[in-house]
Amino acid sequence: MASNANSQSGTFNQGYNPGVTPYYAGAGASPAYQQNPELGQEIPKPHADPSVASPNFQFTEKSLRLGFIRKVYSILTLQLLVTFGFVALCVLEENIKRFVQANYWIVLIAWAIIFTTVILLTCFRNVARTSPGNYIILSVLTLAMSLAVGTSASLFEAEEVIMAMGITVAMTLALTAFSFQTKYDFTYRHGFLLIGLIGLIFFGMFAGIWHSRVLGVFYGFLGAMVFGMFLVVDTQLMLGGRHKFSYSPEDYIFAALSLYLDIINMFLYILQIFGASR
């Protein structure tokens, strides 16, 4: 990317589209995405082997659900600490900053790893539910994403990155609290969000071609809102309860991955707003 601020923003629009997260393309068909048994819906057994799980098992006990939520948030917290820690290194440490900017081909390898691991965890039930393999794959994905996001963040001023982090944290906390408190069920709106994501991708292509500051800012704002709504949906899928759809207790890796991608994409789109508004 060029050294001047405007060219950085333009290249960010063209060279990287944070909206392209492949796991959403198959979210509705994922084995982790099922009707909530608490509303009386009968669901398939999670395993064919009755020794692994009883046919009458339902993820309804409050203690089990709370344990599931704690596990998901523990994994998510570690992922975010690793990613934002590496972002801070890429932005504040000059040697690392120069290295990642001079070796941008490493990011291409990182994105290849990200796409591969996301497909493995979202499209193959046994891979996502089998420990310790699922933890290893998620760890590899997190490290690759940290490298990709850190390299993108290194193109911005430290103040912009810190502000973007702060806004991301505030949005995440606010939307999570909203998801816990609202009586409205967003889980069955997942299809509408997928349509919105497709529209966002095409709008990003258009904004990248025209290089308009207004379009760039609007694109970043729209992307942050779309993934903010995904965060609400994915949080309610994790909570279960009165919601129409919920995650299985075995899908803690998939749930953590979903929330992680939502938050990271919000952060990248907020960075896009700062870059385009220069």
TrEMBL record:
Main location: membrane
Positions of transmembrane segments: 72-92, 104-124, 136-156, 162-180, 192-211, 217-240, 252-274
Pfam families per UniProt: Bax1-I
Keywords, ordered alphabetically: Membrane, Transmembrane, Transmembrane helix
InterPro entries according to UniProt: Bax_inhibitor_1-related
Localization: Membrane
GO cellular component annotations of the record: membrane
Annotated coiled-coil segments of the chain: none
Membrane topology field: Multi-pass membrane protein
Keyword Transmembrane belongs to the record: yes
Family statement drawn from the similarity comment of this UniProt entry: Belongs to the BI1 family.
Name recorded for this polypeptide: Protein lifeguard 1
Organism (species): Hypsibius exemplaris (Freshwater tardigrade)
